[in-house]
Amino acid sequence: MGLVVQKYGGSSVADAEGIKRVAKRIVEAKKNGHQVVVVVSAMGDTTDELIDLAEQVSPMPAGREFDMLLTAGERISMALLAMAIKNLGHEAQSFTGSQAGVITDSVHNKARIIDVTPGRIRDSVDEGNIAIVAGFQGVSQDKKDITTLGRGGSDTTAVALAAALDAEVCEIYTDVDGVFTADPRVVKKAKKIDWISFEDMLELASSGSKVLLHRCVEYARRYNIPIHVRSSFSGLQGTWVSSEPIEQGDKKVEQAIISGVAHDTSEAKITVVGVPDKPGEAAAIFRTISDAEINIDMIVQNVSAASTGLTDISFTLPKAEGRKAIDALEKNKHGIGFDSLRYDDQIGKISLVGAGMKTNPGVTADFFTALSDAGVNIELISTSEIRISVVTRADDVNEAVRAVHTAFGLDSDSDEAVVYGGTGR
């Protein structure tokens, strides 16, 4: 048996009973002959509580100290889990991100992994221990400061360790039974997907599906690490995410034409009004946004008015970055030459994802017909070979998701989807 990396989210280790249940599952994998490395998130809502505490003390906490605070949650989880495993008669050792060799850049609160040097982890498992690693954190390469990887970073930690340790699989344990055709909190008849390609999972993750972080899937695809998404609350088979279809019995799982419907209500829209329609203007706008270290999603430019030679450019970005983007653009208003800015944070994005879409010409028409029949107005449209995304009013998102899900025959015959912990992560 080879090495397996398991990751447990906050809802799986939310309390003492959850930690003991997770410990039993880990010990079971060890008894089955696997070497086991575990990555663990902070307990329940610990990270949110630490953020609230920091904001009470300082409205703008320094990045270095903020990271030092937030990593405490995972250290609590890893130590308690190691204790629970030892209580079951097996040896376990806990490691912080820096002790595990997770090396990052020096950007606090959203660091990226540069390298993983898991010498201590390898030595520990070779000695027969179960290694428990604090997720979501690492150490900067230059200053040796503690860093955090951003929300959901434990998934990325797990895949990065799996790649560095040449693991057979990275198992991501959440509070749902796998990846579903839509968010089970919104669509009760969502179906579990048995297998999905890295490419489709990347599109779902970037379009708002919260079961896997986009960076985690990106890392797994780069190093070809199979991911098995499953629930820590049940013994059911989950969803395999890999480059090639898996075998189930004597049958290969085929990919569906449509993989699923994702939605995201965490974005806002900025419209730059009255932009001169000439070369370099769009570059100036998005250079300003880039210099502010803000990621954007969808972009639409209107046809310029013949009488004025001016156009409007709209784009979406995370709500949390909205004020920062507005300030950056206003500061460079004369350099760009636009008239005004409009900000709208009451939007939602709905995305249809599937590799078979490019060979099925009726998909686009069916998608827009479903939205029309549901009375949903479309504000922006973006497409790729395997995705169609639209922006609508935030209030219309849930109804739009259910309408599209039903229109493409994705509804289960029964209420299959269960969210055991209430968050979908």
TrEMBL record:
Q: Could you tell me which pathway this protein works in?
A: Amino-acid biosynthesis; L-lysine biosynthesis via DAP pathway; (S)-tetrahydrodipicolinate from L-aspartate: step 1/4; Amino-acid biosynthesis; L-methionine biosynthesis via de novo pathway; L-homoserine from L-aspartate: step 1/3; Amino-acid biosynthesis; L-threonine biosynthesis; L-threonine from L-aspartate: step 1/5
Superkingdom is Bacteria
Query: What are the UniProt keywords, alphabetically?
Result: Amino-acid biosynthesis, ATP-binding, Diaminopimelate biosynthesis, Kinase, Lysine biosynthesis, Nucleotide-binding, Transferase
Q: Which of this chain's residues are annotated to bind ATP?
A: 7-10, 174-175, 185, 210-211
Which reactions are catalysed by this chain?
A: L-aspartate + ATP = 4-phospho-L-aspartate + ADP
For binding substrate, which residues are annotated in this chain's numbering? 47, 74
* Record-level GO cellular component terms: cytosol
Q: Where is the ACT domain?
A: 270-346, 352-425
Has UniProt tagged this entry with the keyword Amino-acid biosynthesis?
A: yes
Q: Top EC class per UniProt?
A: transferase
Q: Which Pfam families match?
A: AA_kinase (PF00696), ACT_9 (PF22468)
Q: Molecular function (GO) terms listed?
A: aspartate kinase activity; ATP binding
Q: What is its EC number?
A: 2.7.2.4
GO biological process, any: diaminopimelate biosynthetic process
Q: What does this protein do?
A: Catalyzes the phosphorylation of the beta-carboxyl group of aspartic acid with ATP to yield 4-phospho-L-aspartate, which is involved in the branched biosynthetic pathway leading to the biosynthesis of amino acids lysine, threonine, isoleucine and methionine.
* PANTHER family in the record: ASPARTATE KINASE (PTHR21499), ASPARTOKINASE (PTHR21499:SF3)
Instruction: Identify its protein family.
Output: Belongs to the aspartokinase family.
Protein known as:
Aspartokinase
